[in-house]
Design brief:
single chain; 120 residues; mainly alpha; 4 helices
Length: 120
């Protein structure tokens, strides 16, 4: 099993959520394709650089794209999130570079409040 491949336990959770193949249609093994999809998503590699062990990159990309359009990935995420609500804790650590002069205004500028208190 490669680094980004699903374990047997993970596959047992995901497999029933995927669409079944049509009658009489032969298609590439879903587990191999899903492992290829996760490889690309986790590494950020281009689809063309997908290792051969996952099958043709066009097949993996087409399956990912088709399932995304049909809402399969949303269904998989929702089901897995429902089984493990504590896994939805996220932390955003975005870093945005700003111009060196973007941080401050004019030196000595006075800040006036929106509401001015008037004494009798």
């Amino acid at each position: 099993m490669a680094r980004y491949d699903l374990s047997d336990e993970e596959w047992r959770l995901v497999e029933p959520l995927l669409p079944k193949p049509g009658k009489g249609r032969h298609r590439v093994d879903d587990r191999r394709v899903v492992n290829g999809i996760f490889y690309v998503l986790r590494t950020g590699a281009p689809w063309r650089d997908l290792p051969e062990r996952y099958g043709p990159y066009t097949t993996v990309y087409n399956r990912f794209n088709r399932w995304a359009k049909r809402g399969i990935w949303l269904k998989v995420f929702a089901e897995l999130a429902q089984r493990s609500p504590q896994s939805l804790q996220l932390i955003d650590s975005s870093i945005v570079r700003a111009h060196q002069h973007a941080a401050g205004g004019k030196r000595g500028a006075r800040i006036t409040p929106l509401a001015v208190l008037v004494a009798d």
